[in-house]
Amino acid sequence: MFVFEDPKEANGFYNFVDTKFALDNENVYDDVPFAIEGEQYFFSFYEVEISDKALNLFPVVMDVFVNAALGNDDMDSIFSDEDNTVSRKGHWYIAIEVYSDLEKDCLHIDSLSREMVLKYLRDLKNEYLSTHNYNETIFKN
After folding, report:
1. DSSP code of 108?
2. How far apart are CA 137 and CA 17, in angstroms?
3. With the C-alpha atoms ordered 105, 111, 116, 122, is the resulting torsion angle positive or negative?
4. 3-state SS string over 57-85?
5. HSE-up of 64 (CA within 13 Å, CB side)?
6. Is there a contact between 121 and 16 (Cβ–Cβ < 8 Å)?
7. How many CA atoms lie less than 13 Å away from 1 in the CB half-sphere?
8. pLDDT by residue (tens digit) across 42-76?
9. Angle between the 12-20 and 114-130 helix axes, to the nearest 10 degrees?
């Protein structure tokens, strides 16, 4: 798998691939054909979220101190609630696999086409990240 962080909006890579490869919203996720040095390859991609979670203990600790100072036997939520005790932020990644009629996994360490395919994918990633209007990809080809 070739994986990179996707800082763009949802479906950004989908729209880029659809436009660049003129797929007309058909088979955009799977079996996208491309060629390197006259050899036919295909890629599939997945958009994956890996979320960061953080526990904010400050409101809970403040509740404990305030309730103790007030002499409350029951714990009243003064500062803490579900919205401010756990924060979550997601990071999106694009994961790409490449295969051909000759090789099941062109990114495998022993693949003969691995280095060529990695270069192609790095160039594709850089083009995607630097392109803001996906119609620009039509004029680059």
Report:
1. S
2. 9
3. positive
4. CHHHHHHHHHHHHHCCCCCCCCCCCHHHH
5. 5
6. no
7. 9
8. 999 999 887 766 666 666 677 677 767 777 777 66
9. 110
Question: Residue 45 and residue 30: Cα distance in Å, rounded?
Answer: 7
Predicted confidence band of residue 10 (pLDDT cuts 50, 70, 90): confident
pTM of the predicted model over 0.90:
no
Residue 134 contacts residue 23 (beta carbons within 8 Å): no
pLDDT at site 96: 97
Residue 91's pLDDT band (cuts 50, 70, 90): confident
> Closest by alpha carbon to 124, among 7, 25, 26, 21?
21
Distance between CA atoms of residues 124 and 116, nearest Å: 12
Residue with tokens 């305030």: 66
Helix (H, G, I), strand (E, B) or coil at 128: helix
3-state secondary structure of 120: helix
